[in-house]
Amino acid sequence: MMLTHATPVETAAEAETAVLLIRRTGARATPARVRVLQLLRSAPAALTHHQIEQALGDLAIDRVTLYRVLDWLVESGIAHRTTDAQRTFRYSLAAVGEHAAHTHFRCENCGRVFCLDAAPPVPPSLPEGFCLSRIELDLCGRCAECAGERR
């Protein structure tokens, strides 16, 4: 997957947006977090760790730091981590306002995630003492574009 490069003005504005998103969580906006978040914001589909490393190019950060940044983005609700058909983690940007309020469709072919205008089901009754933190409902298949390729 090839990502295009933005102009310096676009890059500065995108960096500022990334900084604000990170700071809203109460965390520090480190250069690594900002770079990875900028990349996820511009990606047309969910990216693997390797694709992120490759896309960062000259701005690359070490592998362990990248894993930590991705884990933090997911734990903070800024990004989503999904597993594709090959059991590879893919990372994508979460919409502002959190994704828990609706259902997703994940394309098993291209890895893109689509937000559907459908509420998740009502959660089942939980045993006493259990505390629900979120509901995730993913529908999987092929998006219209990928399904059209196979016709």
Automatic annotation (TrEMBL):
The keyword Cell cycle belongs to this UniProt entry's keyword annotation: no
MF terms (GO), sorted A to Z: DNA-binding transcription factor activity; transcription cis-regulatory region binding; zinc ion binding
Keywords per UniProt: Metal-binding, Zinc
CC cofactor: Zn(2+)
UniProt remark on cofactor binding: Binds 1 zinc ion per subunit.
Database matches in Pfam families: FUR
UniProt superkingdom: Bacteria
GO process annotations (BP): negative regulation of DNA-templated transcription; regulation of secondary metabolite biosynthetic process
SUPFAM superfamilies: Winged helix' DNA-binding domain
InterPro entries: FUR (IPR002481), WH-like_DNA-bd_sf (IPR036388), WH_DNA-bd_sf (IPR036390)
Entry-linked PANTHER family: FERRIC UPTAKE REGULATION PROTEIN, ZINC UPTAKE REGULATION PROTEIN
Name of the featured protein: Zinc-specific metallo-regulatory protein
Gene symbol of the encoding locus: zur_1
